[in-house]
Amino acid sequence: MDRRVTPHSGRVALEALRGRVEAEAFVAGEAGAVAVPLVDLCASPGGARDRQVVLGEPLVVVERRGGHAFVQMGKDGYCGWLEAGAVGPALAATHWVAARGTHLYPEARVQAREMAALPFGARVVVLEEDGRWARVAGGFLPAMHLRRLGDWCDDPVAVAEGFLGVPYLWGGNSAAGIDCSGLVQAALLACGRDCPGDSDMQARMGAPVAAGDLRRGDLMFWKGHVAMVVDGARLIHANGHSMDVCHEGIEAAIARIAAQGGGPVTALRRV
């Protein structure tokens, strides 16, 4: 099984895996949510970052150990370890942050000193809204930066272009730093479409498409890399060459990646 999407910590597994894996204990799991703006989801407690998750995203806790929690994320099934303090109770979120980023303020006043930065995609419970400000637990957010859950965007490419210039970060999932699969996932989730977290998983989405029939929003894959088609000549991707999110000519990208040893395009998919 792929450990990235298998809710088995090495010691404890979810009950659904009984009979399929060996574990010291099987549990029903504890529903929760990410309780901090942004946190690394790691392959081991305090270990290497696999991905990042953001405030309000639902999860299931499989095991708690030594100041860390092994969880499975609700958005894509990805599993890994979070710092225990980053896990909070389940949240009946009402809205999501649809701006590239926003700030939490202690009062509904532009001049107030911000208390926290919330990333794109963060989920919150709006308690009250007056048109300009939305009151949430602990403070106020600019209402124009929020959308109701279910009020999705309609163009993944336009969402991805909102990240232009964001620095490349392996495993990153925010405007503080993002990688190729993180960009694609953010763009598709914002449009209400399911999307896994890594490019090899994303290469199994949708249906194959011919090179001569590429459309806006189609995905192009290389070994370990994914980009999104903007139009007949350009793509957008977070990449380790320019170290940011940028537009690049499709033919130029194909030639450059091949020349740098990244190989040919391995798949074209329409989602």
UniProtKB/TrEMBL annotation:
PROSITE patterns: NLPC_P60 (PS51935). The keyword Nucleotide-binding does not apply. Keywords: Hydrolase, Protease, Thiol protease. The keyword ATP-binding does not apply. One of its GO terms (molecular function) is cysteine-type peptidase activity. It holds the Pfam family SH3_16. GO terms for biological process: proteolysis. InterPro entries: NLP_P60_dom (IPR000064), Papain-like_cys_pep_sf (IPR038765), PG_Endopeptidase_C40 (IPR051794), SH3_16 (IPR041382). Residues 150-271 form the NlpC/P60 domain. Gene3D superfamilies: endopeptidase domain like (from Nostoc punctiforme). SUPFAM superfamilies: Cysteine proteinases (SSF54001). Belongs to the peptidase C40 family. This is C40 family peptidase. It comes from Paragemmobacter kunshanensis.
